Amino acid sequence: EVSRLGGLVIYLYFWIIYFLDFTQDSLFLNLLISSIPFVLISFKEDMFHNTTPKNRLIAMVISCLIFFYINPIYFPVIEIPYIGKIISLYPISIIFFTFSILVVMNGMNFIDGMNGLCGFTSSVILIVLIFLSNTYYDDQTIKLSYMYLAPMLIFLIFNFPFGKLFFGDMGAYFYGYLISILIINFFGRHENLLSWMAVLILFYPCMELLFSFIRKIKSNTNPFNPDNRHLHSIIFQNFLKYKYSKEKANFFSTLALLFFWIYPVSIKFIVLDDIYSILGLLFIAFISYLIFYKYFKP
Prior knowledge:
Elements: H1 6-19, H2 26-34, H3 36-48, H4 53-70, H5 83-87, H6 90-110, H7 117-135, H8 139-159, H9 168-189, H10 195-201, H11 203-218, H12 231-241, H13 246-256, H14 258-261, H15 275-296
């Protein structure tokens, strides 16, 4: 009974911004053009709920390949001995970073189950990107981050806490796509930035997806089938168990996960080129996620 067209409104807004000549950034235009395949199929899913995960995944891969074809970029260096050199080979890097984008896109869609959760997560990531791009005087990333952040903050007014408008699959996929490519482009242009920092920034949606995928494989279920065993889902179920209304349970579930969606700001308090502090923060986030899941699991 609630519209899931919040993502469509934002997508059309970005096209209007471009045609009104507020920005002529080629990266921005190429993102809009390349996103058309998955935008169309996710719009169909939001309207009719009749698309398969396989078809949505194929559309996402096509969008990524279109983007890398029309907008060649420098890929970040992966600081893993030996493996990093393999990933740096051009055909392998296309596969690796396409997979990375798919993880972020689907992770954003996974956490879109609670009002505000995807919106707050995306907003914090963009704010951290603004901080980093200011530090490195990257005007393009600053401009695009502000451009992506503005409609998200307006959307959150309608989405949280009362759920008057939903992002839909299209909105979650679209922002996952924008953010992941913006981060790849930013880290690729600044070689002195450690790529593990990007992992830290995107930890929550990526962890949600990968943990869910492994969990389903271990329980012998199809990893592409949806279920209600995500971290935000089981927290929501716990609040319902204590006789909260669905609206209040939704509200408190998003707040209960504040640690994870606000966690990227921890970057502001570390030395940016210290890999040990970054890996330490990743370890804390990983252990915290497992503790949360173990504690709330019915």
